[in-house]
Predict the structure.
Amino acid sequence: MAYLKRIKKKYKSGTKFNYYSEIKSVNWSKNKLVPLKTNDEDIALERHEEVEDFEHQIKRGKEFNWSWLSSSNKRTKIKKLTLEELVKQFISTHKTNVRQSTITRYKCSYNSLMNVLGKSCPPQSLNNKSIETWKKCVVQQGRKNNGINIDLRSIKTLLLWSKEEGFITKMPKIKMMPTESKIKYINDSDWNKIMELDIDDFYKDCFKILRGIGVRRSDLVKGRIDGQFLVVDAINEKTNTNKDILLTDEQLAIVTKIHTKRDETLSRGTSVETFLANITRNFANSCKKIGIYEEGTTTLHCLRHTYAVREYLKCKDIFKVCQLLHHSSVTTTEKYARLNINRLEQDFPTLTKVSKVSKLRVLETKKVETNTHNYLTSRLYN
């Protein structure tokens, strides 16, 4: 409901009252004030009634050119929303609920969209044709399909929100670009080569812990130590869930070292993003030195893939690997089960030997148990 509000204001000629229409909504942290631009109560009431006529649309985010605020307008008209204004409203609404890195990604995606369609493009013109126009343009610019799909997911989020808020009436169909779902992991031979390189031991420790516990780089750096656990709070986690990763004594020492280095770096004014980028760049350079670098494929995330395939090779249980990776659905993890198990055994011979020894011990244990059972049974019936 809208309320007529009178605010006292001092002028050189004396104290006067300015009138406003105050609109309240449970979805707003702050009430909206529409200036009525008058000190006359009768005129204020007349203008306030006009605001009340549009109150429902104001609460849905519509902007208006009020008749009393512009001499060129004889009557109140809805202000045409532009794509730039839509993006600003979306960012403002979401910046308190999502991570800063996500907001940064949104901004990059929407800037790309506005560069092609124009900042003044009306939201209602966002349809299948305009999205395809943007896709063709960025492909011509040399963008990779994986990067385009990241932007498409951000654009889809914007459009879904716009549909819910009433800024658009129809949701366009977002067709993702075709990509090759390639899993690149670091086999034992290449891993040993990386560990033998003449690089800073700090970065080697970063590589070791990422390969050893399978977390994302942001989880490692933004997490905190609690006893024997690396704790990643939901606000810093991709799936918005808390993580508790149990560490060995050796792993705990490495994580402590990384966090100490992080704090020292941040105290000098360096951002977390720069700190993370340095780790990524050193890993890419290491892969280039040993000749296994593939542009667009060889990233720090390869170490998470390495952790996943190693764990799958150990247990052959994709549901357990899903839990270890903290995936929200086993569907995401199933890609590791589609890898050739014989190839994995070849790429991780040390792990395969340990696995075979464990299997032999299990078979020997079962054999002993069977012989004992047979012996006891024969004594019982003889």
